[in-house]
Amino acid sequence: DKEVSRTHVLRMDSSFSVAFNARFNAALAVWPRSLVFQLWESDTGTIRRETMLGELFLPLPSPTVTLQTATETSMQFSCDRRGRTELSPSGTSTTTKVMAGTLSFKCGWQTDSIGRARCPPVTAETFG
After folding, report:
1. Are 63 and 109 in contact (CB under 8 A)?
2. 109: exposed, middle or buried (C-beta count within 10 Å: 0-12, 13-18, 19+)?
3. Per-residue pLDDT reduced to its tens digit, 50-66
């Protein structure tokens, strides 16, 4: 497992949404087993904590799919991690805060100067 890239910390806006608008480039010599998008929460209180909220396993593009021909795909995710305890006027109650959302992405191969996909070599084990 190798981390290819990460975005800088982004805060949710008033509509509880975040737009990453990031492009991740990696030169691959062999086909990866998977592509994983991980969503982390950073708590910047007195003790800095990072908690992984979820993982989305993205489909690997076929050797013929380029960034120019890839279609935008959306995947939904949710996390039921226990939130903070909230006090109500009638007593205490524990609320489970659920984070859910949609990740929209395009996944494809860069092309060389004559338009061929720059994917790793295809072998018998590639899709096997």
Report:
1. yes
2. buried
3. 777 778 888 888 888 99
| No. of helices (H) and no. of strands (E), the chain | 0, 6
Our CA angle for 24, 27, 33, nearest 5°, is 85
Looking at residue 77, its amino acid is: F
**Whole-number Å distance between alpha carbons of 43 and 49:** 5
- Residue-wise pLDDT for 78-119, tens only, equals 776 654 555 566 665 555 556 778 888 888 888 889 988 888
Kind plus residue range of the DSSP H or E element containing 50:
strand 49-58
Tokens of 80: 């039921």
